[in-house]
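EI: anyone free to look at a 283-residue chain?
SC: sure, send it
EI:
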Amino acid sequence: MEQMLKDRVAMVTGGASGMGEATVRLFAKEGAKVIIGDINTKKGEALAKELTDEGYTVRFYGKMDITKQEDIDFNVQKMIEEFGHIDIFCQYAGGEIGSNFNTDNIHMEVWDATMDRNLKGNVMCYFAIVPYMKKRHSGSIIFCSSNGAMNPPLVTYAYHAAKAGMESMTVNAAFELCRYGIRVNCIIPGPIMTPFWNEVFPPEMPMVEREKFLNDLANTEVPMGRLGKPEDIANVALYYASDLSGYVTGQRTFVGGGMGYINCPEGTFMMNSKVHPIAPKEE
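SC: here you go
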């Protein structure tokens, strides 16, 4: 198949690991010039070097903390200086902060930090990038939400509220930007095996219990009976980034093996399940 993103310029935030890394790899193989935006300098540099050595055009300009406007501006400006424009913006940056999914740990400083990392920072990236797309009257923007925003397997008010905000951003941005020829869509992942889960489990939780929880989650909550892989998300991102979705905008697509829109025979929120990692102990 012909490279679907040949010579297009793409920025992927959260691009050094998990779903972002898988997307960077796939976009590069499909011919895109890819900029990795990530807070992890070591991983970002290593991934860029690996793919560059393989003959792809991949850049990591330096640390990109999306909660810092100066980091966003620096990376966007470097991209424009080198390539002159941007065709694709794919957002994965985010993550749970501080609460360990325990409602007793929800304080306003945790709430604010989580919103900054998962909503405000992504909006800041959007506003830094979209003027360049408007000038060319073309582009594809791909936001990332979470199945937990409306179908929570764990209680985390701030994280899931921020993810719901990204879905609202999707439809509002799509509504505004369609007249500029810019498409905006959103991926809603189910349970995907990424480093995200390291932030979910209590630090003292043994590995065998973590594995049991994830297996139970797949078998109880996911109709297809397995956890997703980062590549499952990257494939959908490629669809939205490419001309295959040229007449698609404002869409929010579940990518969770049926989770969120198909009822399992034993379907139940994990919070009410005994396999929940921080479920209250029975008296």
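EI: Residues 264-283 have pLDDT under 50 and may be disordered.
SC: 👍
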